[in-house]
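#onboarding

Welcome to the new folks! Below is a worked example of what a typical request in this channel looks like: someone posts a single protein sequence, and someone else replies with the predicted structure as tokens. Don't worry about understanding the tokens yet, we'll cover that in week two.

Example request:
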Amino acid sequence: MVVEQPPHRARLGTWPTPLEPAPRLAAAVGLDPDDLWIKRDDLIGLGGGGNKVRKLEWIAGTARAGGATTLVTSGAPQSNHARLTAAAGARLGMDVVLVLAGSPDDAESGNIVLDGLLGARVVWAGDGAAAELGPVVDEVADSLHEQGAVPAVVPFGGSSPLGARGYVDAGHELLEQCPDLSSVVVAVGSGGTMAGLVHALGPERVLGVDCGAIVSPEHTVAQLVGSLSASHDVPSLRIRHDQVGTGYSTPGDAVFDAILTAARYEGVVLDPIYTGRAMAGLIAAAGEGQLRAGQRIVFLHTGGMPGLFGHQATLARAEKEIRDATARTAG
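Example response:
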């Protein structure tokens, strides 16, 4: 059994992450060249980088301090959170079991390869939404306990009041780097990243872009924000829902266009599930005047590039871009 423990932070990253200007991308989306900056949480380092490292510093650190020997968590086959939980376990000397939706045939590349390299064991849970695997996770944890392990369950996406502390830290870090911040644009998956930023920066300075990972992101984020604050007031959140497309795993054309735009104007690679959607939301918000020239805007790059290599539809479109460019050159 994990002993109840005060929050304990394990150092898994190198801080602060860079804040880089993106002048060509800014001009391409209708902003002034000095308006747009990219917060590079994809460059955190551990296990390929990404926002989950900040959450896992608190969650895994507290679990290990309480006596846990094994981390158990859940996600989609290409879960960035699962990959980074595996990496955190490797760094901290803990076993990791990943409960993933689907079957082994669903993923043979991308994050799942890294899960294996990092030493995680995968339990395939069959059909069902990744956000609804809690009962399977509990069964796995109970089985591990019976085998003599001391398991600690890491919540879906690392989004809990404890995990959200990582993005309270990030919000304060960002204000030190960018005191005149107007808006930070962030993908909303399981909700903890946005919640931490809202707590640190205020709801008026955080624009979330729903990625379709959970049913009600407003409710989830508001609950997490409330858990971080002594106030029980429900914040008025800014969340766009226009980039969900036909579902979590099937982003629309605007997302692929946003991935191309970021790559070709700044050399920054995004993924189709989270950061590509967030950039598509940023571009749409700039076009509609929700984000305006003259404001200091930060795009939070939450990582996820390994997942691109497990998303076959995006790879097919990228390959078509190469063929088309080759044909134009030959012509």
